[in-house]
Amino acid sequence: MDLLDPLLLARWQFGLTTLYHFIFVPLTLGMALTVAIFQTAWYRTGHLKWLHLTRFFGKIFLINFAMGVVTGIVQEFQFGMNWSDYSRFVGDVFGAPLAFEGLMAFFFEATFIGLWIFGWNKLPKGLHLATIWIATIGAWLSAYFILAANAFMQNPVGYQMASDGSRAEMADFLAVLTNPIVLAAFPHTLFAALMFAAGVIISVSAWQLARRQNVDTMRSSLRYGSWLMIIAFAGTFLSGDQLGLVMVDTQPMKMAAAEALYDTACGAEASFSIFSIGTPDGSEEVWSLRVPYLLSLLSTHTLDGCVEGINNLNAEYATETFPQFADQIDSFTPIIWVTYWSFRWMMGFGIMATAVAVGGLWFTRKSAKKATPMWAWKVAIWSAPLALFGSLMGWIFTEMGRQPWIVFSLMLTEDGVSPSVPGWNVLVSLIAFTAIYAVLAVVEFGLIVKVAQKGPDPLPEPGSAPPEPALEDTPTTVY
Fold it and tell me: Is the pTM of this model over 0.85?
């Protein structure tokens, strides 16, 4: 393996920056909705508890949003830096939803977040509430457009090839926006984002409650986060099921790789392995814990359905579907151990995060006769990354499972890299990005921990005037 291979380094760099950026995206999507809900509760009830929760989690939301904007800008530069051939090939199609995403994030969403930050005591109460809801809608629309761009890479639609065959051109923008992949991936991504936001809320609330600080306020936020986690997990499961059906229809190789299924199987033979021990490529199995019929049920919603295997698909792709690429690559199969385990870790982390939420509701129920044990608080405090790890594993599965394609059926990944950028150049930028992102991670984590440990402002004494709802103590220097 050539350590200065531009393709290898470019893939590592894009993977690093994408996963790092995605740490902030789901928390922004989920926390925006949470802050809007808390402020709505304050608007409707007048209870100061909800005002303090709005301001408290609003600070975490703003810190995270600022870091997400900073790290997101790098993504778009890489298309021209390391993936110029890809950009030339699909720029006419891919660029349109990407431009709309930029408009949503940097103009629409950021404008209303600014109004929300500086509109306390300046805008009417109802209008100020509307700004955070509009910012939330803008964040979700931004996510939709970027997912539409990614969906084109998974299942290219709405395009036509140029007369000379050199590039894909936009033919139907509506078809791009209604790609079956994006229609299934959008709710799945949003529910997963809500799970991560819920995990952070549970963790922060548990830290405060373990120290008997702001008990009434943080108990409400803990139970909110626990219910949000459970509801979001149900939504993630159901939307993931629909996404799986679309994946089988558009990218059957990805489903086969997720199970390391080499030969086509039907009915009871189309089983799903919960855990398996074997060779890294999954071709030989030593031992596994399997559920009969489950793979067939997941892939076809029937107990006797058939799931195509890797060997069958490889032969079909090489001789019938994509013979023009057969001389260029040896196999149309992704890295099996990556797809196999990322698929299971994605589900496993989500289940563990939900189990923590169920425990949180149990320990904080009104009928509880014993104090919550310290070990339960510690589990809750350290559970925040679980849902995040699940989301990251989902992205790894989505992108690595598409390989060796950068645009499925149209362009191989090796054909998209910039031809004139030497490996050492990519290596230098990879090292620089890694170092900068490490520093940013320390700053981000430090700011959020500082806010979380301080907790919400104390409630006023009975009969005293309500506090001024300003956010002047928010660390606005990061944005």
Answer: yes
